[in-house]
Write a structure and sequence with these properties.
By secondary structure, the protein is mainly β. 5% of the residues lie in helices and 44% in strands. It contains two helices and 26 strands. The strands form six sheets. Strands 1-22-19-24-17-14-13 form a seven-stranded antiparallel beta sheet, with no helix packed on it. The longest helix is centred in the C-terminal third of the chain and has 13 residues, at 279-291. The two termini are 29 Å apart.
């Protein structure tokens, strides 16, 4: 899904609210963001925010649902542009139809990943299918490093096999974990995986100590290294850990995402659906979209493309990394 906020330059996020983190784990709380009109979906956004803007190259995380489509209207995001990033769509329930300007037409279902490379410029639409009654998942963005941010647009779809754990299961959609490696291509080292934990289970996962990691909880009473992580919160662990210990204290299964990567060395500017390095780069991308240049056409979507919102009156500045 796109960032369809009408005033994307005015993002304001607070610091963690649930007390002092345990064992060096930082807890990032989400904020609710309504996307579009009165019946549009509301998402819980944990990245970016003031406390932390990036985890590895992961620069955007929206967690949504479970939403009854009969009430929310489901997802209907008209064609819109992207530059300088990869989008990662992951569902827990429901089905979304994807169309893009490089000719891709695909469905994303629970346990399957759609990765779209925006690069120099791509446009796409996302619509929940008529048979979807409950929509529930996450939308993630990955910032492309400078040397690759003008790469050609592309699309990949992958169905990771479940890997059993002692006390749970993992599906690796990017990178490597628990002996499994995803074939999906990225431009920086990354980890993206769904982990389910049995009631009362504790699982220790070996990870790359050069990575920083985030754990986004979808359900369950989860602890990361002893720190409580509530539903829709994102727990951050700095580089230097060779393992992550996860515990589910609930009497029902828990589900979470593990995201990771080496600290991203560049400062980025994020505005609307663009990731760039300068105000001028963002202005040029907006103008290209408005004029109908650069981003191609999405065929098969019944409706007009999304108009670009107005830019703020001040110059866009890079989001600085937390230390």
């Amino acid at each position: 899904m796109s960032n369809t906020e009408t005033r994307p330059a005015e993002v304001r996020c607070g610091a963690p609210e649930n007390g002092t983190p345990a064992a060096g784990v930082e807890i990032l709380t989400a904020r609710d963001v309504p996307l579009g009109g009165p019946r549009a979906m509301t998402v819980r956004r944990t990245l970016p925010q003031r406390a932390r803007t990036l985890i590895g190259a992961w620069c955007f995380a929206d967690h949504y649902g479970p939403d009854e489509v009969s009430r929310s209207g489901g997802m209907n995001v008209a064609p819109h542009p992207h530059i300088g990033l990869q989008t990662v769509s992951w569902l827990f329930s429901g089905t979304i139809e994807h169309r893009d300007s490089v000719g891709s037409h695909a469905l994303v279902r629970p346990g399957e990943v759609n990765l779209m490379t925006g690069g120099h410029g791509i446009s796409h639409s996302e619509v929940s299918t008529p048979d979807t009654t409950i929509l529930h998942g996450v939308q993630l963005w990955v910032a492309l490093p400078s040397e690759h941010r003008d790469t050609a647009p592309a699309f990949e779809h992958h169905v990771p096999a479940p890997v059993p754990l002692d006390g749970g299961e993992v599906r690796v959609f990017l990178g490597s974990l628990a002996g499994d490696t995803s074939p999906v291509g990225t431009f920086t080292p990354l980890l993206g995986a769904e982990v389910t934990l049995a009631p009362g289970a504790t699982v220790t996962l070996d990870v790359d100590p050069g990575f920083e990691h985030g754990v986004l909880v979808d359900s369950g009473d989860v602890r990361l290294e002893g720190a409580a992580v509530r539903r829709a919160e994102l727990a951050y662990a700095a580089p230097g850990r060779g393992a992550l210990t996860l515990t589910n204290e609930a009497p029902a299964p828990a589900r979470l995402l593990v995201l990771g990567g080496p600290p991203f060395p560049e400062e980025i500017i994020m505005w609307w659906n663009f990731v760039g390095r300068s105000h001028e780069e963002i202005v040029r991308a907006r103008e290209d979209w408005t004029k109908g240049d650069r981003f191609g056409e999405v065929h098969g979507y019944d409706g007009a493309p999304l108009p670009a919102p107005e830019l703020p009156n001040t110059s866009l500045k890079p989001r600085r990394r937390a230390r």
